[in-house]
Amino acid sequence: MLAVIVDSHIVPGYNYEIERDVLSKEGIELRTETCRTPGEIIERCQDADALLSIYAPTPKSVIDSLPNCKVYVRYGIGYDNIDVDAATAKGIPVCNIPDYCLPEVASHTIALLLNYERKINFMNNAVKQRVWNSSLGFPSRRLSEVTLGLIGFGKIAQHVYEYAKGFGMKIIIFDPYLPDSVLEGKTAGKVTLDELYQQADYISVHVPLSAESRHLLNYDAFSRMKDSAVIINTSRGSLVDEAALIRALKEKKIRGACLDVLEHEPVLPDNELLDMDEVIITPHSAFNSVQARLSLRTRVAQTAAAVLKGEKPYNIVNKKALGL
Predict the structure, then answer these.
(1) Active site residue 284
(2) Residue 82: beta bridge partners?
(3) Nearest alpha-carbon partner for 318 in 75, 69, 79
């Protein structure tokens, strides 16, 4: 059997020995292909039993053209780059690795909040411009006076909650799918989306990207927030309507934004957010740690091997649709 790592981001000379070692023990060969278009995937992966991918676009045309493919595994949590319905129609399990970087993304979320609230970037830049003024960080608040609103309360958001609670923040949650039992013993309050917009100083979004959630944070949403609100997005770039965000910042509808993800990555050089002092941007790096990367690579290979052996791992995202 053959597993193919297919992506436009494959780096020549990069070592895939972690994946190769896991797969070889199960009698599965590993090959890498640099594919930037669906057509290239179709051309080069006809013999693939498993596709392993980070960003490669995998629409219905690709899925329908790969006769041997038995499983698709994404390096990461989100899977919006593959047509899951098309895969389901062909009986192909689609898998992600949903919990390899929970503490990393949660701590990055809190780090962005702390950086913004304590004005670390602003003061660092000022001092490097030879401006020494202890009042540059004023005004700021004690963290016990900060209200953090979480949109979505899945595993990452639950880690964010624990970290924020440790700093004494007030935490409010909007998640229409959340069973009340999840909040038992927690100090967070469940609110409506409007209540969250009206009360939160920082609003951190933690939901999957879908047709329904795309541009969840749009101009209407920004207009309903406090003018001192700061947006945090460490999930998916398209959850935030960037054009609306830029407009809202210019009109001072909200105070600022902390973004680890953008609608277009890498960031376009003419993106106005790059020139806004009230915006902090990191390069889609919230997942990063030595431990997270090792876990991700190992578990991608393990998941592919498990499905090819006829097993049904917990991380098949279309398991219910496939009747597994």
Answers:
(1) yes
(2) 58
(3) 79
CA 100 to chain centre: 12
- End-to-end Cα spacing for the chain: 22
Segment 119-134 mean pLDDT: 95
Number of helical (H) and strand (E) elements in the chain, helices listed first: 12, 12
Q: Residue 76: left (phi > 0), alpha (psi -120 to 50), or beta?
A: left
265 is catalytic: yes
Active-site annotation holder among 29, 145, 265, 311: 265
The string of pLDDT tens digits covering residues 133-166 is 999 888 899 999 999 999 999 999 999 999 999 9
**Per annotation, catalytic residue among 44, 214, 284, 293:** 284
236, 255, 297, 299: which is the annotated catalytic residue?
236
Q: For 239-272, write each residue's pLDDT tens digit.
A: 999 999 999 999 999 999 999 999 999 999 999 9
Cβ pair 222, 198 in contact under 8 A: no
Asked if 88 and 111 count as a contact pair (C-beta separation under 8 A), the reply is: no
Which strands make up the sheet holding 29-34, listed edge to edge? 29-34, 2-7, 50-53, 71-74, 94-95
The answer to whether the beta carbons of residues 262 and 285 sit under 8 Å apart is no
* 10 pLDDT above the threshold of 90: no
In terms of pTM, does the model score above 0.70? yes
Beta bridge partners of 188: none
String of DSSP letters for 12-61 = TT---HHHHHHHHTTT-EEEEEE--SHHHHHHH-TT-SEEEESS--B-HH
Q: Give the range among 147-151, 195-199, 320-324 with minimum mean pLDDT.
A: 320-324
pLDDT, position 13 = 57
Rounded distance between C-alpha atoms, residue 167 and residue 169, angstroms: 6
Provide the residue type at 324 as one letter: L
